[in-house]
Each structure stands twice: as C-alpha cells, then as structure tokens.
Amino acid sequence: MSISLAGIFPPIPTPFQADGEIDFAALERNLTRWNAQPLAGYVVGGSNGEFVFMTPDERVQVVHAVQELVPEDRLLIAGAAAESSRETIDITRRMAEAGAELAIVVTPHYFKNQMTAEALEHHYRLVADASPIPIILYSVPANTGIDLPVETVARLAEHPNVLGLKESGGDVTKIARMVRATGASFQILAGSAGFFLGSLGSWRGGGGLGAGQHRRRGASRTRTMLPRGGARSGAIPPAAARRAQPRGHRALRRPWTESRHGFDGL
User: Fold this and answer.
1) What predicted TM-score, i.e. pTM, was given to this entire model?
2) pLDDT digits (tens, 9 = 90+) for 179-216
3) Is 112 a catalytic residue?
4) Residue 78: beta bridge partners?
5) Which domains does the chain show, CATH number per domain?
C-alpha cells in the first residue's frame, strides 16, 4: 500500500503539567479540536513536541495516546530520533508497536564535525534496514547545525524503506534540486509555513507546518490543491500556489512568534 504525504501534517506540541509531567487530558482536548479540521495527519514527538525534554518511555506513551484518538484516514508520524543508530532503531521499533505508521528521524548532530555525508548516509541506511515502518529523513539545520546534502538525500531516496524527507532549512532552491534528483515516489514535506509558498512551485509532497494547527482554513485550502499521492505531477501554478498558502505564514515573520519566542510563541 502506497503512503501519501500530500496535505498538511502539523507537528503537534506536547502539553505538560506544572510539575513537568505530560498532560494527557490536555493532549486529548487538543486532538479533539484538530480532528475536526481537514488535516492529513500529525507529527508526534518532533521539534514542536519537545522530544528532547522527554524520556524514551514518555515519547512512546504520547504516540500511543495519540494513536488511540487519531481517525483511521489520518497518518500518525512519530519522531524516532536519537544520537546513535542503535538507539534510533530501538525507538523506531517501539514507535511502530505504539501505532505509528511512519517514523521521522532527525539528523544526529552532537558530534557535529564527524557528521559527514558518508556518516549520515550510513546512519540512515542502518535505520531504514531495521525499521518495521517507513522512515522520513528530517533536516532542520537551525536546531542541529547539520544540513543534509542533496546528493545524500538522492542516494537514500533509492532505499525502499525511505519514504521522503522533511526539509526545514528554508532553501526553496534546495527543495527544487531534491525534487529533480529523486524519483517520483520520494516525497518532500516543507517544514515551515514561512517558505511553503516558494516550495509549492516545485512540488511533490505536503507540509509539516506548525502554523497548520491554528490556521486551519488555509490548511484546508492548501490540502485540496496538493498533488495526490505525492506524485511528480508538475508544479502548482504560481497563482494557485499563492491562493493555497496558509495565511498564517505572515505571522511567522512577526516578533512574537516561534522564531523568536520558541514553542510558546507558536
């Protein structure tokens, strides 16, 4: 069965109580609201989910809780990153057992100088070989200091268990180069509403947009225009792309939003 990344997949926040414990009641309330909107699925335990502040068990518990509440027609994408390949594989397997259909894996980065293109490719191949569910590569240089090279992405795109990439670097020309360098089955998620419009001009995929959680009308309009199945069906015409762009992207340029105030700003 083919999996489509067409549509909007908001990276949902993880609500916490004052004592630092996960607020599962608040998570359920949030999902009840989001489930009423025309979203394609959710990214759970990503950057917006603050997975770096959670134990592996907590990360799995959140995915399991979300899985219980997500409609059958929506994808559940689980953050499964760790610094070592061995731990990443373990978390990926646990996420699959918790009900995730895809695992999104951010680049390892602690030993930044050693994270060569060859090292990153080797890491992702180990994870893709062992994962019971397809994986999505995740490049977010602002958080990791690592920018996954186009050539590395192109080689990894040939792996049968690598479905696509979430690109949060903001370089729309790089996204266009990756579209040209990869096969039609490889799908790309734009990681921010701030450059979503530019990405639509060379499109194959969807959007993993934090703004999609609160700009739902724009998300609905966008989803209806994205290519179905992530197929290389040609770029969306510029005028249509502008109409599809969620209006919330303007807010991301203002000083009170996530780029300046973190997840509370979002």
Assistant:
1) 0.80
2) 899 988 899 887 655 455 544 544 555 554 444 444 44
3) no
4) 44, 103
5) 24-265 (3.20.20.70)
